[in-house]
Design goal:
Blueprint (H helix, E strand, L loop, with lengths): L4 E2 L4 E3 L5 E3 L4 E2 L4 E3 L12 E3 L4 E2 L4 E3 L2 E2 L3 E3 L4 E2 L4 E2 L3 E3 L4 E2 L4 E2 L3 E4 L4 E5 L2 H24 L6 H6 L1
Parallel strand pairs: 1-4, 2-5, 3-6, 4-7, 5-8, 6-9, 7-10, 8-11, 9-12, 10-13, 11-14, 12-15, 13-16
Antiparallel strand pairs: 16-17
Length: 157
């Protein structure tokens, strides 16, 4: 979980099955990542999230596989048993039906999520940079955040 960041109100529930995060992944505010006890197809119901993944604000991921360099737009839902292959973008508010395979290098959006277009090289190369940008922001935020509460400031006045 090197260079990973988990933002305010995000929830990671690995009480039923395991959740694994790759390098430089960020889970933004109010996102929820959880697992089911089992999948209908018999595959493991774990969550596996690859390297350089950005999970947008308020998204919900359940027992799915997210490969490397993926951007999951804010408010998206990825259903159980789904696989999102590398270098892919889910538009904000997308709802990926359970068991869906989203091929590498594509933009998907809508409810239910459908193929929109193939990503160009610039869009694909931006995915790693986006995740690194969130890590840099997390580092800045960590430096600014006090390791203890701020009530003492009021007491000193």
């Amino acid at each position: 979980m090197d260079k990973c960041s988990f933002w305010y109100g995000s929830i990671v529930r690995a009480d039923i099955n395991s959740i694994r995060f790759g390098f430089c992944t960020n889970v933004q505010d109010r996102a929820v990542i959880t697992t089911q006890s089992e999948l209908d197809n018999g595959y493991p119901a774990d969550v596996v999230i690859g390297n350089y993944v950005t999970v947008g604000h308020g998204s919900i991921l359940t027992s799915c596989i997210i490969q490397d360099e993926v951007l999951i737009g804010a408010g998206s839902v990825v259903g159980a048993g789904s696989i999102v292959e590398s270098k892919t973008i889910l538009a904000p508010g997308s709802v990926v039906a359970p068991g869906t395979l989203i091929p590498s290098g594509q933009l998907w959006g809508g409810n239910p999520a459908v193929f929109v277009k193939n990503l160009d090289d610039g869009q694909k190369s931006s995915l790693e940079k986006t995740a690194e940008g969130h890590f840099s922001l997390a580092e800045e935020h960590k430096e600014e955040f006090l390791p203890y509460g701020t009530l003492y400031q009021q007491a000193e006045k």
